[in-house]
Amino acid sequence: MSYTVERIDVDSALENIVAYQYALVYQMSEILFCKIEKLSEIDLRECLEARFFDVDKEIHIYEEDGNWCAVKICGTEDDDCLIKRYELQERYFGAGKYLCVCEHLTYDVDGQATVALTRLTGVV
Q: Across 1-124, where does the E strand assignment appear?
């Protein structure tokens, strides 16, 4: 495996987002997608899900059973990764034209590949 997943405290996660390059925050009223330095304060009452990421790490904040959870994912690209690019809508072109996603693969006993983890890795 070329990644690690660690559960972390949500408050700690929010304090450490400055160490990441990009933010993707789904709120009830809008989607925020920008570089971290342009991100305003996050209101968890408005938030549905948030991802903070750069090329080798991501913090994912989400709600589960009425509680906020956070995980820190660290990973590297290797032979067991699929790198995909998704074209961004024109309104996000200030951040870049494509969102880059790494799909980490795992294999079952028959050698069939499945996606074990998907993480955001950047914008180009």
A: 3-8, 22-27, 31-35, 47-53, 57-64, 67-75, 81-87, 98-107, 113-123
